[in-house]
Specification:
- The chain is α+β, with helices and mostly antiparallel strands.
- The protein is 20% helix and 40% strand.
- The protein contains two helices and seven strands; from the N terminus they run βαββββββα.
- Strands 1, 2, 3, 4 and 5 form a five-stranded antiparallel beta sheet that branches.
- The longest helix has 13 residues, at 21-33.
- It is globular and about 45 Å long.
């Protein structure tokens, strides 16, 4: 299904078609809500609430990032689904569009 992609603006959703008015409305309200990363002295880690795209769906998510680079998703909530998004992957160290391959794998 590809990696999680942080969505900071509508153009970050790599969709095969223009978003519907309803999808644009939901996405713009989600993007308005995200925060800048903040440091927690108590937990000794960064906290970040942000919108992400994964496998044709849009989520709001809360991440914790430890000083050594370990990233944990602590919460997520699905908002939009079934978007025909592009799926990128790496094959032999080269980034390539794997959309059709992944869709065929999921259909089987």
């Amino acid at each position: 299904m590809g990696p999680f992609t942080v969505v900071l603006r509508e153009e970050d959703v790599l969709c095969d078609r223009p978003l519907t008015h309803q999808e644009q409305f939901h996405l713009s309200s989600l993007l308005f809500q995200h925060d800048e990363p903040s440091w927690s002295d108590e937990g000794k880690r960064w906290n970040w609430s942000v919108t992400v795209s994964y496998g044709g769906e849009i989520f709001s998510a809360r991440f914790e990032v430890e000083p050594k680079g370990i990233v944990m998703m602590r919460e997520d909530r699905r908002w939009l689904g079934n978007l025909p998004t592009r799926i990128w992957g790496f094959w032999g160290g080269v980034r390539s569009d794997r959309t059709l391959e992944c869709r065929a794998e999921n259909a089987a």
